[in-house]
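ARCHIVE RECORD
Type: protein–small molecule complex
Small molecule: zinc ion
Source of inputs: curated submission
Record status: active
Notes field left blank by submitter.
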Amino acid sequence: MKKAPILFFFVVFAAGSILAQTPRLSVHYTVSFDSASKNKMHVEMIMDHIKPGEITCKMPEWMPGYYQIMHYANAVSDLQIKDDKNKLITFKNATTNSWTFTNKSSKKIIISYDIKATKKFVANSYVDTTRAYIIPCATFLYLDNQLQIPSTIQIYTPKNWSSIATGLTLMSATTHTYQASNYDILFDSPILIGNLEELQPFYIGGIQHRFIGYGMGAFNKEKFIQDLSKVVKAGIDIIGDIPYNNYTFIGIGPGRGGIEHLNNTIVSFDGKGLETEGGLNKTMSFLAHEFFHNYNVKRIRPFELGPFNYDAGSKTNLLWVSEGLSVYYEYLMVKRAGIMSEKALLTSFDNNITAFENGPGKSYQSLIQSSYFTWQDGPFGTAGPDKNKSISYYDKGPIVGLLLDFAIRHSTNNQKSLDDVMRLVYKEYYQTKKRGFTDAEFQMACEQIAGISLNEVFEYVYTAKPLDYPKYLGYGGLSLTVSEDKKYRLEPLATKDALQSVIYDSWLH
Ligand SMILES: [Zn+2]
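STRUCTURE (tokenized, with ligand):
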């Protein structure tokens, strides 16, 4: 009893002296908008307790979630590096996205630069006098090989902008300062600033879900949130776990596309068209897709998608799972939420089958190739040197998802489904092994649930072999017809056997 305090003081003293001798490197950013009318923001990167020697800072070439090299560093201008005596330090650009300089002895280094942000697109930053949409990958330089260090970010908000939406942890509401525990978190957390509107939050399992947006327009917001909460619940029910402390949909205004993040999604959004059945289905499917990504790709992820290669991109064969199966589940979530009709669900797949079967690339490119080569083929497989020999995993992915689901349901007497596969990989790889899965491991997970070999279905993943629609759709009591103008249509079989009926009914719910 008596010795304990002495030991305690010794430990505290020893730890304190170590800390005093080696102060930790800290990185603080400020972002300001004095030149917002010129579509520019100003950034300062302040590094304290930095060591002497050669230092390289970099800007990512792309952002996870949008699998294209974006050359974000091209938007940087007027970059200056200064030491703690405010003296300019010369630098060189060894590559187009890096800045290298020598720190002789300064404890503090400040790098300041402007970012031009003119393109209103979900994967580009945008600034004008009404708002700023900040993509961290396109904004914040990082110290090469130091992606693990924490940083703080302070936003100097113009007086007439009322709010900030971001998934970053708030440190101080009065100074608008946020914290990121490492660069994967910072780069995963876009920031929207302006006069934003927040809709009524909803709670699932006690967890808050918010919807904050710019320029959302007029629509029935109460009904919208009711519908969205049902869709989100349908997504949560597939996995059976809520892995975030809160979740925010951040709307950046009208446009196309969304980007998924761990505890938020950025969506191009306005309330137009929600009053029509088609418009409601389309918007809810889109939001379902982005939400489901919080599981499928952010947590249930391909082996190659972490740690990210922010220079060259992270190539993987498995975007057909991350993107294709997220399309598959977006339809099912909206159907299971009671919003989409049975007919509209089938029509959603009709559109994918018609696009895929009429595309010239179907005989040339497999799903894994379309995943791997998306960096050159473009996000929808429509660019690049061989655009007539490429496909889109957004079309073939959900089709193979449907065939895979029906194969599993058939082999297990409808006791299991693709939902069980998603739950298994979530538990096995995200929760237990804390890593991504390989191609072979995903097939193994499917076969573990199905209890049989699924080699034939996976040939539709690994090769460009024509799909056996009658066999696999038949398992679920569906048939496929094609019209003279090459429009494909799914229809329930007029007569179904007992298992077909059970599979079809349970698939719809
Ligand atoms: Zn997606």
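CURATOR ANNOTATION: The chain is about 35% helix and 20% strand.
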